[in-house]
Amino acid sequence: MIKNTDHCRLCEYQEAYIQKGIICSLNNLPPAFSRTCSKKLFNTIAIEKTTSISQKYKELNESRLTIYLNIIFWPIIGILVLYADYLYYQHYIKPYDILTKYGPYGYYCIPILIILFCVGIILIGKGTGPYFEYKKEKEVAFVQKKRLDQVFQLYGIRYIVTYYPKRNFLDTRIMVKDVKLETSSRNVINLTK
Q1: Number of H helices, E strands in the chain
Q2: Are the C-beta atoms of 30 and 23 separated by less than 8 Å?
Q3: Cβ 108 vs Cβ 100: under 8 Å
């Protein structure tokens, strides 16, 4: 459900204050309208917000495959390293009782166990950490895009975002080339980057 402040965040007449929140610069009052605002002005701020929300949403959609491959690949490598750590202990330390048999020199094997264990945990985190961050960012971007779409739909505005083409398949950057806001009366607000 959208709030009046969602409309104001896209309007040129908004002013944000820490204590008061968002107020309208036309009457210096908080937003007070029932469904739509008759005095709204969607221009530069609306285009900038549309650009940033669309770019973030597309970046997250484009990185989905990489995130899912990382959640599979890195934890598997990490588990294999932990298993190698376990095998190292089982085959080289435990049977020969290195820690007690060789006295202080046997303790030189402990750093190898600790290093292998830490590398395994780090590799598991390398796959799972970005996945959880991706899920959190995706949820926020989805809510922002949904609110943007709902506000524009109330005013009969649709937006068209064009992106620069990727130079090659390794290019991961998403760059917005142009954003157009079209009203039902075909008035176009355009901002070219």
Answers
A1: 5, 5
A2: yes
A3: no
Cα(1)–Cα(136) distance, integer angstroms: 20
DSSP state, residue 168: S
Q: Which amino acid is at 28?
A: N
Whole-angstrom Cα distance, residue 119 to residue 73?
Answer: 15
Instruction: Please tell me the pTM assigned to this model.
Output: 0.73
Could you tell me the residue ranges of all domains in the chain?
A: 1-41, 42-192
Identify the three-state secondary structure at position 152. helix
Contact at 8 Å (CB) between 137 and 26? no
Residue 38 banded pLDDT, cuts 50, 70, 90:
confident
In this prediction, residue 117 carries a pLDDT of 93
Q: Are 6 and 151 in contact (CB under 8 A)?
A: yes
